[in-house]
Amino acid sequence: MTTMTAHEALYRALSEEMQRDARVMLMGEGVATLHRDLVEAFGAERVRNTPLSEAIVAGCAVGAAASGLRPVVDMLYAPFLTYAMDAIVNSAGKLRYMSGGQFAFPMVVLANTGAGWGVGAQHSHNLEAWFVHSPGLKVVMPSTPADFYGLLKSAIRDDNPVVFLNDMTLLHQPGDLTDEAEAGLVPIGRAAVRRPGSDVTLVSYAKTVHTCLVAAHTLAQQGIQAEVLDLRSLKPLDMGTVLASVRRTGRLVVVHEAGPLCSVGAEVAAQVAERVFDALKAPVRRLSSPDVPTPASHPLEQAFVPQAAQIVQTVQELLGVPAEAQLSTS
Length: 330
Hints:
Layout: E1 2-5, H1 6-20, E2 24-28, H2 31-34, H3 36-42, E3 47-49, H4 54-66, E4 70-77, H5 85-92, H6 95-98, E5 108-113, H7 128-132, E6 138-140, H8 145-157, E7 162-167, E8 174-177, H9 179-183, E9 192-195, E10 200-204, H10 207-220, E11 226-230, E12 233-235, H11 239-249, E13 252-255, H12 264-275, E14 285-287, H13 298-304, H14 308-318
Parallel strand pairs: 2-3, 2-4, 4-5, 5-7, 6-7, 10-11, 10-13, 13-14
Antiparallel strand pairs: 1-8, 6-12, 9-11
């Protein structure tokens, strides 16, 4: 077992994949400067600094992927992806289908997302649903170092473009890579059960998985057993695991930082209502950030992101716990 941060796990996976496959390359603003070890190991042709032009970086990556390379591009902050939408959505996402499968587009787009660092709305904006809604793209958002490691390996080996979103507050939090995790890949499209339970299903991804686990611990003190599911992959979406859990518990709360409108949580809620309505003992509930730009102030950021106390209260309401008997997080 090895302990490392998510950032370390990400670049360990990248280094190992570059060692395994000479077609894998890294491009992005300052990547060769920041990762001199990769330059020394693999050469300047495979680790390239780029101009500060997201459209150019993404366009070059699409061309590299179409020509047989497997580029990984670091686009820094997720809102900067708006400058690269044409290459990612219109080219990478569609050309494999339009070519009748004659071309593969094995590219990975890395971007940092999520509140918590006080970098303001132009750097913190959860755009994952935009890319989930774009045909031909896969989208992942891991919550643990082991999944950063295993999902990046899977993304690099995939013949489709993968948008790999890194929640900034998770990047420098340590976690364990078990021997099994180090030996294998984490499949794209498979959710993980982080905590089993029988009374309510909490579905989340990225940083709010950990918030759900804190809430589940508090609920357990009152005898309420919450099952916590980590989606990990937003497209493809593992609804099989979600539906099986809701059939057992009869209740669902979906928690994520992204806004509520047309969100991943909205899709999960809709599919549960369509497919296992007869199993529900209470209405599906969603907790998200409000539909406003991400604030830069730390106290406002904390108010912006769903907190464990909100999850606890929501679950207690679903189970009809009297107000005087309710517990909350400190």
